[in-house]
């Protein structure tokens, strides 16, 4: 289960050590926004070293620079020999960007002698206005697609918004992007990962975001500070009542395998409830 994905600046070995000791399920070693342009070559070497050192029990992802710039191939050349769990693709404009990255990964895996197709892709798919119009088309783009996430900061700049939040909540244009990302992930049959909470000193805002994300169907959430991990992991884990319900649903359908609908605790359940139950128990 990947509930929490913590960004780590690619040029900071100290922050990597701190992140590796956290309870995050995954670390995203960042070569994009957190690294100044003149520091990217040095950061690539540091990210390679981080990958080689590893962080026991954690997935190690690398966020490369956008494909339409001049840094993405150099980022991949540095990271891929150390076999990251996956690549985070920022500013993904649509299906063709994902397919282009998949072709690059084919080549880098072959050069490194890695298992073909072993590197996953987590795409951030709402960072430009144009990208919102391609969200319907990610299904079967590549078997590497692991999940979709969204972002509000770059999108705000792209549309010219003065801010993307009001009273601690995203405004409607950005809630639209969030909702479309969730639906796009469901349509593609992959994980929906919620964006970061940028309020570092507002634990109540983080908790609200994480609970809302889990309620709506997101299975993970990104973070930019280790202090956010505990709240994310708690909010995106089923509680005991939900687990008991899930076990009861699975048991009911196991006892009546041919049934389409059943009665459980005075309520009707059907096959979509069975799918939800399996997901809560980590079986789907």
Automatic annotation (TrEMBL):
Required cofactor(s): Mg(2+)
Keyword Magnesium part of the UniProt annotation: yes
Residues spanning the membrane: none
Keyword Magnesium included in the entry's annotation: yes
Residues of the HpcH/HpaI aldolase/citrate lyase domain: 3-226
Span of the signal peptide: none
One protein family per Pfam: HpcH_HpaI
Gene Ontology molecular function: any one: lyase activity
Key words of the record: Lyase, Magnesium, Metal-binding
InterPro entries: Aldolase/citrate-lyase_domain (IPR005000), Citrate_lyase_beta/mcl1/mcl2 (IPR011206), Pyrv/PenolPyrv_kinase-like_dom (IPR015813), Pyrv_kinase-like_dom_sf (IPR040442)
Protein name: CoA ester lyase
């Amino acid at each position: 289960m990947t509930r929490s994905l913590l960004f780590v600046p690619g040029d900071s070995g100290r922050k990597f050590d701190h992140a590796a000791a956290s309870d995050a399920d995954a670390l995203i070693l960042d070569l994009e926004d957190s690294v100044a342009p003149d520091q990217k070559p040095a950061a690539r070497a540091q990210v390679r070293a981080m990958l080689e050192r590893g962080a026991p029990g954690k997935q190690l992802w690398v966020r490369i620079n956008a494909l339409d710039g001049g840094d993405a191939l150099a980022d991949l050349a540095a990271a891929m020999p150390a076999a990251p769990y996956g690549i985070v693709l920022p500013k993904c404009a649509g299906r063709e960007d994902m397919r282009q990255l998949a072709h690059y990964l084919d080549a880098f895996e072959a050069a490194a002698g890695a298992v073909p197709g072993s590197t996953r892709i987590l795409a951030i798919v709402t960072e430009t206005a144009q990208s919102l119009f391609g969200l319907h088309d990610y299904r079967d783009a590549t078997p590497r697609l692991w999940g979709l996430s969204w972002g509000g900061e770059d999108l705000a700049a792209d549309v010219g918004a003065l801010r993307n939040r009001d009273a601690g909540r995203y405004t409607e244009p950005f809630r639209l992007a969030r909702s479309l990302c969730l639906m796009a992930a469901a349509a593609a049959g992959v994980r929906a990962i919620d964006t970061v909470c940028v309020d570092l000193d507002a634990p109540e805002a983080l908790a609200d975001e994480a609970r809302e994300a889990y309620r709506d169907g997101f299975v993970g959430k990104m973070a930019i500070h280790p202090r956010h991990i505990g709240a994310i992991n708690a909010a995106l884990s089923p509680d005991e009542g939900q687990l008991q319900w899930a076990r009861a649903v699975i048991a009911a359908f196991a006892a009546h395998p041919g049934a389409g609908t059943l009665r459980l605790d005075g309520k009707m359940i059907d096959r979509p409830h069975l799918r939800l139950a399996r997901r809560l128990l980590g079986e789907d």
